[in-house]
Amino acid sequence: MVDTARRNTGVEGVAGGVGVTALLVAAARAIETHRPDSLAQDVYAEHFVLAATASKGWPVHPKEVADGDRDPLWGRFARYFGLRTRVLDDFLLRSVHAEGVRQVVLLGAGLDARAYRLDWPADCVIFEIDRQEVLSFKHQVLDGLSAVPKAARVPVAMDLRDDWAGALPGAGFDPSAPSVWLVEGLLFYLPPAAETYLIDTVDRLSAGGSALAFEVKLEKDLLAYRDSPLYTSTREQIGIDLLNLFDLAPRPDSAGRLADKRWSTAVHTPFDFTHRHGRGPLPEENDALAGNRWVFADKPRP
Fold first, then answer.
1. Coil, strand or helix: which one is 128?
2. Domain-by-domain residue ranges, the chain?
3. How far is CA 295 from CA 66, 116, 218, 270, 287, in A?
4. What is the pLDDT of residues 180-190, one digit of tens each?
5. How far apart are CA 92 and CA 297, in angstroms?
6. Per-residue pLDDT tens for 192-251?
7. CATH-assigned architecture of domain 81-236+246-298
8. Which residues fall within 8 angstroms of residue 236, CB to CB, at 6 or more apart?
């Protein structure tokens, strides 16, 4: 089935543009999974990478990275994604186990396999929103592995530029119940107005007791980092020019917008969690990660 996925048109959903960045993250998660000091485990990640023509020849194991952690892409950047995966895994599991939330919404779910690999309460429902092509490829690979989700999983085939909010209730989403929302690695690519619309929509659909995590960049001029090791290695090694994919317009203050709506917010650098876990990327010169922030927000209960 995995070999079939190589030939299926569903692969086109991850064959170019923003879609191929899902394969980049999957490769990073695969490498992280095989590290002796792994921060996160995703046994499905390497199968996505091996199944797609766009990622042919990419490493999925640390032993396949000649320079190890010195490699800006498959070392430092991959470790960043491993750290992000761990931090956001912890956020989701804390929300469902400690806070009792039972609806999880993954916006721009990509090749996220959390429904299959995390320890969910039996009555939890995970909604995955992404384009049909991406979900089709994902299903082909996971079905070929006979993978079984650990909670109810509801794929919602929608482009986030369309009325995904209108589609959620028809898929079984209950806006009167608390939800936990994850927007992982998506907002960089959206125009500012689309980011604001997404944040406002999450607020509108969130009952008290809901939680949200998302990632943003604070730099006013991303092009100032064009020659950074991270962006240079990504262009040269796998042909992905992230700066051509990012929306370069000034970003809105989404954390501040949520605070104005009475959400409590916490904004962290990734390096905060590097120190917390004892491994992960540290700041460096000309650092394309310098402006990255991970935002966590909670909507108060009535």
1. strand
2. 81-236+246-298
3. 34, 25, 12, 10, 20
4. 999 999 999 99
5. 12
6. 999 999 999 999 999 999 999 999 999 889 999 999 999 999 999 999 999 999 999 999
7. 3-Layer(aba) Sandwich (3.40)
8. none
